[in-house]
Amino acid sequence: MNxxxxxxxxSSAKKLGRSIAQELGHEPGLLHSETFSxxxxxxxxxxxxxxxxxxxxxxxxxxxxxxxxxxxxIDAARRASAAQVICIVPYxxxxxxxxxxxxxxxxxxRLMADLLQQSGADRVITIDMHxxxxxxxxxxxxxxxxxxxxYVNHIKSLALNNICLCSPDFGGLKRxxxxxxKLNCDMAxxxxxxxxxxxxxxxxxxxxxxxKNVIIIDDMIDTAGTLCKAADLLMEQGASSVIAYCxxxxxxxxxxxxxxxxxxQKVYVADTLSxxxxxxxxxxxxxxxxxAAAIQxxxxxxxxxxxxxxxxx
Length: 313
What we know:
five-stranded parallel β-sheet; 8 helices; 29% helix
């Protein structure tokens, strides 16, 4: 039996929050957010949430005020006597800083976990973490969902022949195996050497891509330099076409222009971050159905692994 709950969204997550509410057939609650003249954030609930399970949808990509607004909303919910505060955070910032790079660096993803928990979150639901080890930083439950549950159906709808899945690095092999098991197709991987973050010095393809419709699978696009170089290299190696499915569209430092100028035909991204463009070669595939299904399963005490694929189409 479903439990009493209310769904709210932060100011940066209006579109996604409303989409999730629509999928649930549930009217979203009123969360007021205001920025004072000096830049200070203020958050208040415009209705009673006493004894309710509160779901907070938040897209906390940069600037940092989006993250702090979530902390305020969590704290306000606790002080308003909410029974539970469950954060729907599709993208977790600082996920690439999960370990010390050298002797004098922070572990920023651990700090994010500490701040969310100290603010009063009871649970976090997220999508396609950069590395699963981040879950170990949390003492509260973290439900890790995968856009593969949405993307596989989308790939099938394209009706492509002779598909080859490609991981842009060895770290992504586990990710594309989720797709391979359902699509029954070939795999390739790109070996790359980096000079420094966001700058690749050398790339080579391991696997046969000649005559294949290659689909690059990755968890995020930042500057798009690696993605575009990979697409160009795949086409040089005889691929028939290259498209990409990447979950988190950070798209910094002229990434959109690089994608438009590259050999890649299409890049499908999720709306895990706010203000993701859907223009030119970039197309948004919403994660709202996946998040709504997760909320429904959580409320009815069903496993997330039992999310019905038909509900995600």
